[in-house]
Amino acid sequence: MSNHSVAVRSTTPPFSNTSASEGPSVFDEIAANDLTSRANYIYSLLAVLGFIAGCFLLYTVIQTYRAQRRLAWLDRLLWAFCVLQVLLLLLSLHAAAYRPHYLIATGLGCAALSFAINTTSLCSLLVLVLMAYVLSLDPPSHALLRRPGVSAALVILTSVLASVLLAGLRGLTGPLQEEGRCFMDPFEAGATYAAARLCLTSTIPLACQAGLLVGGCVRQRKTKGRFLSGSEEGPVFLAVALVVSSCQLFYGVALVRGARLHQAAQPEKEAQWERAFLSVAELVLFSGSGASLLLVLLVHRPCREGLLGAFRQLSDCCGGRGRTQPHRNIIAPHIEITDRLQDIEDEGSSRTAQLF
After folding, report:
1. What pLDDT does 339 receive?
2. What predicted TM-score, i.e. pTM, was given to this entire model?
């Protein structure tokens, strides 16, 4: 009897609590991956369109350089911003290729990728700050910041120093040469890194742009002149700055929120959803590059006219090929008629010679 009772007590039902607890985590993982995949589809579309727009913009710059036309200072800043956005799209290809999963890389390689992305992002944001400075204060041509060498050195040096600071706060999330999942900005870096990144890549550049724009408004109001609308670069600057700053701010806030929840030792289920939400925010950050390139192509008047001219040439080329065959049919009878008239004239001249 005792053996039988022990056997009865040790029998487990076919659906135990262990399997029931594992079921929701599997469904949560599938739902989180589905959310990331949907966001990746949208990002991939914007990335492709933005890359095509960036290639056309670069082609326009090359054509301008070959025509030996001198670019204005604002145009140079705008083209530099477009080049940086194309570079940022190329650096973000790992997101489109591996999402909803992650790139497998060493700790050193992942840190280098994060450093390159932060440096490129900071360079593009500082170029926008320079554009706001030129549009708002209209410095003279002999000003120090209007010299290409000085402004380029200032932008690159500031971006590299800020990225080195962020790399020091980020650290290595794993062994130096051991491969693993690569997170551009991991939660394990801590809330200090997330807050520093938010300040350096969102708050400070946005505050500088807003301060310069307010100063420009006050200055133009005193002189009773037009502000931003008086130049071709004004509207495109406002559109691009709004898109890029919004994407950077959204990603920075999501990173700070995820880092604070990670320090609070949240459950595994919530951590999984936070990781998926940060992946979506990362795709939003990179989508800003593609959207800004499209805005430059569509809002900037010279670029828009160049695009319309390219479409016009393409339509003329395709239409000319379609009209070649009817022209051939018209020309052929004309040649035959001309030959027939020549024969008649020859016959008439020979008859006249015979009569005489």
Report:
1. 46
2. 0.78
